[in-house]
């Protein structure tokens, strides 16, 4: 049976609020408090980070710390690629959402000829480029980097040559070509975005299952419809940002947004998504315990993580039973 490998990425270079680097440890504390053996059960590897550069002056206002984020992308990509080559399922626990660009790069590096679909469960669209970003925070850019999308039609910034040098390099981590196509992204409960992102949604007819739609259809149907939209893809990656939860449940994250999922909905949604045989990677990001005195966010996130992991394990066990032995 294929085994799950935990990939811990404590980088928080892409976030606007400090503290997401502590998210993985907050999950471990929640695990201990629950009396679970989760972190004993799985092989884990930690990707070294460059968080120390945050003590230095940022030189790239339209893509903060992009030089170190490029190195982080490469390390994550190599670890994800190696995990897949070892025949293991990469379950990524990361700091801020910029790290997802490295995960996507690793999936494509391992399977360059396979078409990758992305299900992005997140309050935010994360499809800005240095040309369109209102903040310069790179956790708003991983999908644009993966798409090789500058969105020059909506340009508001004039990034300098050095920023653009690193941005071009970022697009080429894992594979030289764009790693995903616009039509192969499905958003779920995304509800906080800027005009340049809406422009791309409309231009490429990108689907977002809004929260009212989730309420009307239920999480199982939304999961099935999201997967169906990606039926032409060879493999699917699910990225879960904890700010997809309603701000009542997600105080311990850098950018909480009202009107989102509750914990039970998130568990059910992730369960149905990862049970699909094409899902090759699951990622959880943006837990920030410094914003949350009771560690409630991590406790909620751990509940979702444990439930989702069980679904992955059940699926892998079934696949192992049905796969003919050589």
Automatic annotation (TrEMBL):
<keyword id="KW-0056">Arginine metabolism</keyword>
<comment type="pathway">
    <text>Nitrogen metabolism; urea cycle; L-ornithine and urea from L-arginine: step 1/1.</text>
</comment>
<dbReference type="GO" id="GO:0030145">
    <property type="term" value="F:manganese ion binding"/>
</dbReference>
<dbReference type="Pfam" id="PF00491">
    <property type="entry name" value="Arginase"/>
</dbReference>
<dbReference type="GO" id="GO:0005829">
    <property type="term" value="C:cytosol"/>
</dbReference>
<keyword id="KW-0378">Hydrolase</keyword>
<keyword id="KW-0479">Metal-binding</keyword>
<protein>
    <recommendedName>
        <fullName>Arginase</fullName>
        <ecNumber>3.5.3.1</ecNumber>
    </recommendedName>
</protein>
<keyword id="KW-0464">Manganese</keyword>
<dbReference type="InterPro" id="IPR014033">
    <property type="entry name" value="Arginase"/>
</dbReference>
<dbReference type="GO" id="GO:0006525">
    <property type="term" value="P:arginine metabolic process"/>
</dbReference>
<comment type="similarity">
    <text>Belongs to the arginase family.</text>
</comment>
<dbReference type="InterPro" id="IPR006035">
    <property type="entry name" value="Ureohydrolase"/>
</dbReference>
<dbReference type="InterPro" id="IPR023696">
    <property type="entry name" value="Ureohydrolase_dom_sf"/>
</dbReference>
<dbReference type="GO" id="GO:0004053">
    <property type="term" value="F:arginase activity"/>
</dbReference>
């Amino acid at each position: 049976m294929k085994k799950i490998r935990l990939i811990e990425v404590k980088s928080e270079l892409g976030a606007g609020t400090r503290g997401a680097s502590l998210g993985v440890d907050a999950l471990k504390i929640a695990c201990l408090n629950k009396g679970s053996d989760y972190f004993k059960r799985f092989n884990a590897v930690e990707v070294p980070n460059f968080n120390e550069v945050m003590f230095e002056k940022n030189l790239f206002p339209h893509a903060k710390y992009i030089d170190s984020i490029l190195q982080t992308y490469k390390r994550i990509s190599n670890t994800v690629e190696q995990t897949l080559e070892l025949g293991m399922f990469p379950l990524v626990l990361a700091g801020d959402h910029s790290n997802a660009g490295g995960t996507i790069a690793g999936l494509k590096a391992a399977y360059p000829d396979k078409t990758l679909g992305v299900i992005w469960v997140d309050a935010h669209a994360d499809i800005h480029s240095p040309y369109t970003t209102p903040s310069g925070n790179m956790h708003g850019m991983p999908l644009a980097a993966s798409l090789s999308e500058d969105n020059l039609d909506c340009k508001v910034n004039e990034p300098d040559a050095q920023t653009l040098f690193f941005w071009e390099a970022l697009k080429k981590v894992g594979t030289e070509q764009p790693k995903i196509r616009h039509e192969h992204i499905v958003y779920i409960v995304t509800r906080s975005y800027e005009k340049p992102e809406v422009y791309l949604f409309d231009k490429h007819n990108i689907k977002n299952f809004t929260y009212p739609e989730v309420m009307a259809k239920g999480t199982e149907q939304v999961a099935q419809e999201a997967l169906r939209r990606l039926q032409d893809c060879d493999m699917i990656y699910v990225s879960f940002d904890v700010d997809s939860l309603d701000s009542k449940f997600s105080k311990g994250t850098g950018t909480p947004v009202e009107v989102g999922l509750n914990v039970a909905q998130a568990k059910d949604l992730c369960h149905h998504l990862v049970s699909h045989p094409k899902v090759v990677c699951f990622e959880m990001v943006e837990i920030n315990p410094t914003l949350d005195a009771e560690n409630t966010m991590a406790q909620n996130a751990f509940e979702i993580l444990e439930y989702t992991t069980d679904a992955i394990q059940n699926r892998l066990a079934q696949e192992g039973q049905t796969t003919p032995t050589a």
